[in-house]
Design brief:
- By secondary structure, this protein is of the alpha+beta class.
- Strands 8-7-6-5-4-3-2-1-15-14-13-12-11-10-9 form a 15-stranded mixed sheet.
- A hairpin with a 5-residue loop joins strand 13 and strand 14.
- The longest helix has 38 residues.
- The radius of gyration is 35 Å and the shape is elongated.
Amino acid sequence: MTNASFLARHRRALVLCVATLALHYAAIDWVGGRLSAQTHRPSELPASLMTAQLRLALPKRVESQPLEDVAPLAPSAAPRKPAVSARPAVEPVAAPDAAATAAATSAVAAEVAAAVGSIEQAGAAQAQTGTPPPAVAQGETPAAVVPDAAPRQGLRRYKVNLPPSASFDMTVDRVDADGTKWTGSATMTWHTDGSRYNASVEAGVSVLITRINLLVLRSEGEIDDYGIAPVTVTEKRARRAETATHFNRAEGTITFSASERSYPLLVGAQDKATVPFQLGGIGRADVNQFGSDIDIQVGEEKEATVFRFQLIGEEEIDTRQGKVVTWHLSRPPKPGSYSSRLDIWLAPGLNWYPIQIRNTEASGALTTQTVSNIKMTDK
């Protein structure tokens, strides 16, 4: 009786509690369903491949030694005329005829030319390898004396892990020194099978309904222990003839179709098309290598100079596929060598590919190439 009386008195309160719990449960279930539907609703925006990005700690800065210029190889020097020495008196002999004299002179000239050629080849090899010249036996004198082809020079060796093959669509924005603005597009390709490579850059601007190619670079060569090893690079600029630069590894020289000068070929030498990918390979192999300046010999149209790249820091670059975390490397102008500034932004989270390249000319003209799409080409 007591329990029945208690239930009768509190029946209304129990019904209200049960109804309240049921309503709360229904409300929570409805809100959860709405949130789930919104969470899984497909986005109207195109999918981005740059959602997860790698952020690495910047290496500690290490000061580098002053940069030294690479001197061109000296032209072949004419052999010195042998000195005339006093001789003891001898009985006079009949003078040789003119034919015999000419024959003897030709023979001596041939021997001197052969000696000069061998010395020049040895000098070119020394410039690349740094090996000392063979010793001359006591009492021997060289047939001809020529100056060294170039001072012995070498660069720091880097660990390199080259990025995989890919092609890049890029936007081009140019501002002339007078403020005139141009827009265009570029295509950059990089392909390697592990032993050989080819790379190219084609950049142009749009003028009304036509396109003008500003630059076409094509490079091909091998992959060695130092990374990319160019053999030949051709360069074609608007309203100028095509030029070629040759990396002669057997002779240890860099030569040019547009100039008679030649330079010693240093280890790790690159051309303008391969520099961004060599830098990317250095980052992929060991980021701490960027703690000090990166020195790379670069063969251009008429000369080969050493580019010194410095790590500026981490920056986010706006692209058509979103923001990309990059490492900014810069080669400032060097008076007497090159007057322009070159900036390259590499993306650690995207195989260390070059995402943006900017050239600032001495006049103030600015050309910026920014990646808009990357297509992996490895199969």
